[in-house]
Amino acid sequence: MSAAIAGLEPIVGRYFPLELEGRHHRVYFEEAGQGIPLVCLHTAGSDGRQYRAILNDPEITARFRVLVFDLPWHGKSSPPVGWQDEVYQLTTDRYVGTVMAFCRALGLDRPVVMGCSIGGRAVLHLALRHANDFRAAIGLQSALHAESAIGPQMAETDYMHRPDVHGGEAAASAVSGLIAPQAPPADRWETLWHYSQGGPGVFPGDLYYYFVDGDLRNGQVRGLDTDRCPLYLLTGEYDYSASPEQTEEVLAQVPGAKYQLMTGLGHFPMSENPEHFKTYLKPILAEIAGATA
User: Fold this and answer.
1) Which whole number is the average pLDDT over 61-89?
2) Is the CATH number 3.40.50.620 carried by domain 12-292?
3) Average pLDDT of the chain to the nearest whole number
């Protein structure tokens, strides 16, 4: 490259092979920065583009190596060979196993894990099962369970996989009400665009984990040890799927967890209004960096 390109973003995208459940997957991830690894988990039916503002923030990337991967079947991570003969369904074991395989494949040393929605649930499972492997967990819109506010027909039937329904547009429409009214229009519509591009059956397959298999109301979250893996919870006030009241249920059962309500934000804080979201995130990252130092 003979000259610098004005506005060139520092994000680097790569593919790498990953064996999951005995099958070969080609997984895509993006990264930027250096320092403490920060692995970010996207929401159901979407992909890693939701974290573009975090990847592009020089203050964050000066101390953190931000890594965002697309789950298999999502974004640029294609499904495995033979996908056309099966129904995609995300389970707790599959989700946790995928995150751990990603961290091991890249040789990450006790990363921080941050996830939103299904990712916010996953960080609870990860902290429960692999506390010693993470230096902290940040749950965005974390709840022990989820309300079927987007419509049970999308979680429990083939509504989105019909010839007379555009699954992507239906998914975007279903989640649009979860975005706070204060969200800048450009960020709101980019968030919905990501949803409109989802593969057939992927959003309902993710919702199986969100509504059914990943339910934590059995009390096991009480075993989460915040001395081994500090837990930070951030929830937008306009989220009615994983509401502030539901996050407070987590807080009540996990001694040592830290929680803050995010005003003016909904279910997708990192993409619907990233600049406002970062005012809540950066103090947490500074605390983690300070503890590491």
Assistant:
1) 96
2) no
3) 93
Cross-strand partners of 69: 29
Cα separation, 176 vs 179, in Å, equals: 6
pLDDT band at residue 15 using 50, 70 and 90 as cut-offs: very high
pTM of the model: 0.94
Q: How many residues does the chain have?
A: 293
HEC string for the chain = CCCCCCCCCCCEEEEEEEEECCEEEEEEEEEECCCEEEEEECCCCCCHHHHHHHHCCHHHHCCEEEEEECCCCCCCCCCCCCHHHCCCCCCHHHHHHHHHHHHHHCCCCCCEEEEECHHHHHHHHHHHHCHHHCCEEEEECCCCCCCCCCCHHHHHCCCCCCCCCCHHHHHHHHHHCCCCCCCCHHHHHHHHHHHHCCCCCHHHHHHHHHHHHCCCCCCHHHHCCCCCCCEEEEEECCCCCCCHHHHHHHHHHCCCCEEEEECCCCCCHHHHCHHHHHHHHHHHHHHHHHHHC
According to the model, what pLDDT value does residue 219 have?
92
The CA distances from residue 91 to 74, 114, 140, 174, 211, in Å, are: 15, 19, 19, 22, 11
